[in-house]
Amino acid sequence: MRRGIAVTTAAALVLEALAIALVGSVLGLAVRRQNMSLAGLRTDAMAAGAWTGGGVLALFLAGCAVLVVRIAVRDRTAGRVGRVALTVCAVEHAVAGAAAVGLAGWAAFGALMVVLALLVATLLFYAPEGDRLVPVPGSDPDPGAPGEAAPPAAA
User: Fold this and answer.
1) pTM, whole model, 2 decimals?
2) Which residues of 116-146 are buried (b: 16+ CB within 10 A; e: fewer)?
3) pLDDT at residue 144, rounded to an integer
4) I need a surface site. Which of 22, 85, 100, 138 has the fewest CB within 10 A?
């Protein structure tokens, strides 16, 4: 089940990265072809900003997808930097979901919340041993947990 969630998360992140890259390129083309300007900014600067912003976000999402695929293949948690990157990705989805309600509607909000839930599930299922909140089938129970026999005392 853990690997299935991780693979689904990676697929969703790849699809989202492609969509963000497409939206960024369409926005850049629209700005350039219509000669739009905002507060005196040049049209070329605004188009370059749309392309760059969309490209950077798409690369970040694709990098997170690669990280999740690596987690699924190894069936182990990522390192500290990897967990921080996935947490940043989850926070980005929460903020984008809050903005999407007003700008794009409830369907976009729902899609972002599904990806957020997949990211959080991946982070929880692959949490480090000491931080695990979700029990994993087949893992050893905590020997110091209440209700279990205490380990034999050394003489």
Assistant:
1) 0.77
2) bebbbbbbebbeeeeeeeeeeeeeeeeeeee
3) 55
4) 138
